[in-house]
Design a protein that fits this description.
Blueprint lengths: L2 H14 L16 H13 L3 E6 L7 E7 L6 E6 L18 E3 L2 E3 L9 H9 L11 E6 L7 H9 L6 E4 L8 E4 L3 E8 L3 E2 L9 H22 L11 E9 L5 E2 L2 E9 L6 H19 L2 E6 L7 E2 L5 H10 L4 E3 L5 H6 L3 E4 L14 E3 L3 H16 L1
Parallel strand pairs: 3-6, 3-7, 7-17, 8-16
Antiparallel strand pairs: 1-2, 2-6, 4-5, 5-18, 8-15, 9-13, 9-14, 10-12, 11-13
Helix pairs in contact: 1-3, 3-9, 5-6
C-alpha cells in the first residue's frame, strides 16, 4: 500500500469511527462537529486557512470552509459529513469500524460520502498555496441527509465563492449535471366524527381523503404530460403517495386523516408554482366535500438542478472522464452551490447503489483514479 493510500485508509478509518448521523428523528440525530474538527486539523496541517461555521446555536453541527491560496475564482471540492441512520444487525461487520475485504472498504459513510474527503485531501496535498494562482476550497457541510441546513446556511451567507464546484457524491466518477428536485408534503383532511350507524351524524375524512388521493393521481398524470425530460431515465415528474394515517375504530365515522407524499420535479419548473397548484386543488376539494383540507411542507423543498451542457466545467469533466454527463434521480446540495454563482457538477467515487444500504462500501479501484481526476481539475482551475 502506497503512503498516500495509507493516509486515505487512516483518515477514512477515523471519519467512520466518528458517528455523525443526521435524521429528522431526534432519537437518531447527532452532531457532526467531531468530524469537522478532524477535517480542520488535517487541512490546517496542509496550509489551508480553516473556518468553522456553526449551523446550530450550540455549535454541535457545523460547516467547514478550508481555503488554500488567495484571490477570486478557483475551485470548490464539496461534500457532506453526515450519514443516514443504520441497522447494525443487518451489517456483516461493525458499521462504525472500517474493514477491508474483497478489494472494498466497508463502513457507514464509506461511499456516501465520508470516503470523498480523504481522496480530496490526498489530491490537494500535491499543491502548495504558493503554487496556486486561484484558490482551492474544501467545503464540508452538515445535515445533507436530513434538512440540508448546512448548505442552506452557506447560500444565505453567500459563501464560498469560486468559478466552479464539484460535489463528491457517489457517481462512480461519472459527471452528473442534472437532478430532480424534492418536495415532501402532508395533506390533512378534517371532517366530523360520528356513529357509523347514521352517516348523517358525521362527515368522513377518509372518504374525503379518497377524493384527495384521486385528485393527486390525476395531477401526477397532468405533470407527466406537461413536463417530459428525456435526459432522465424516468423522464417525467414522480409523485408518490407514501403513507396514510387516520381513523380509530370501524364503528366510528373518521374525523381526521393525513397523507404524506413525495413529489420530484424535473428541471424547468420551480417547486413553489407546483405547490401553489396543489394547494388550489385542495381548496376546491374542501369546498366540494365540506371538509377542512390543509397542506403543509414536511421539509423545506429542494429545487431541481441543471448545469448547462456547454458550460466549462461539464465539458472539462466529460473530457477528463471520457463519459457524457448524466442525470440522476437523487437530490444533492448542488442547487445551493449554484445559487452562489458557481458552475456545479456532482462527481465522486463509489456507487449510489451502495448508499443507504447495509454493508456500504467504497471500491479500492476507485481511489487512485479519483485522486488523479481531482488533481486534473485543480490544475485546470487553480494553476
Amino acid at each position: 500500500m502506497s503512503t498516500s493510500h495509507k493516509q486515505v485508509y487512516s483518515q477514512l478509518r477515523q471519519l467512520i469511527e466518528t458517528p455523525s448521523v443526521s435524521s429528522t428523528d431526534s432519537r437518531w440525530d447527532q452532531g457532526n462537529r467531531a468530524v469537522i474538527d478532524l477535517l480542520a486539523s488535517w487541512l490546517n496541517d496542509l496550509g489551508f486557512e480553516v473556518e468553522i461555521q456553526a449551523v446550530t446555536a450550540n455549535g454541535d453541527k457545523a460547516n467547514l470552509i478550508a481555503t488554500l491560496g488567495k484571490g477570486p475564482g478557483g475551485l470548490v471540492l464539496a461534500g457532506h459529513t453526515d450519514t443516514v441512520p443504520f441497522d447494525e444487525g443487518r451489517w456483516k461487520s461493525n458499521p462504525l469500524k472500517l474493514s477491508e475485504r474483497d478489494n472494498r472498504l466497508y463502513g457507514l459513510g464509506s461511499t456516501d460520502m465520508k470516503g470523498f474527503f480523504p481522496l480530496a485531501i490526498a489530491a490537494a496535498s500535491a499543491f502548495s498555496a504558493d503554487s496556486l494562482k486561484q484558490p482551492l476550497i474544501l467545503l464540508a457541510t452538515a445535515d445533507e441527509e436530513s434538512s440540508m441546513n448546512g448548505a442552506r446556511q452557506l447560500a444565505a451567507a453567500g459563501r464560498p465563492k469560486a468559478r466552479a464546484a464539484i460535489i463528491g457524491e457517489p457517481t462512480s466518477l461519472v459527471p452528473v449535471r442534472m437532478h430532480k428536485g424534492i418536495m415532501m408534503e402532508a395533506v390533512r383532511v378534517t371532517g366530523q366524527a360520528g356513529h357509523s350507524s347514521d352517516p348523517a351524524l358525521g362527515n368522513s375524512a377518509l372518504e374525503g381523503m379518497h377524493a384527495v388521493m384521486g385528485d393527486l393521481i390525476a395531477y401526477r398524470k397532468e405533470l407527466g404530460v406537461r413536463y417530459h425530460h428525456e435526459f432522465f431515465n424516468i423522464a417525467v415528474p414522480t409523485l408518490n403517495l407514501g403513507c396514510i394515517h387516520g381513523g380509530d375504530s370501524p364503528n366510528r365515522i373518521c374525523g381526521k386523516t393525513e397523507l404524506h407524499f413525495d413529489l420530484r420535479m424535473t428541471p424547468g419548473e420551480d417547486n413553489a408554482t407546483v405547490r401553489a397548484e396543489i394547494e388550489q386543488r385542495m381548496h376546491v376539494l374542501a369546498q366540494q366535500h365540506h371538509l377542512e383540507i390543509d397542506l403543509r411542507s414536511l421539509i423545506t423543498p429542494i429545487e431541481p438542478f441543471e448545469q448547462a451542457a456547454d458550460s466549462e466545467l461539464v465539458q472539462l469533466a466529460e473530457t477528463l472522464t471520457g463519459h457524457s454527463a448524466e442525470a440522476v434521480a437523487f437530490a444533492t446540495e448542488a442547487p445551493f452551490l449554484q445559487q452562489l454563482g458557481m458552475e456545479t457538477i456532482v462527481m465522486g467515487p463509489g456507487s449510489i447503489d451502495r448508499a443507504h444500504q447495509p454493508d456500504e462500501y467504497l471500491e479500492l479501484e476507485q481511489i487512485q483514479p479519483c485522486i488523479a481526476l481531482l488533481q486534473q481539475c485543480i490544475r485546470h482551475y487553480c494553476l
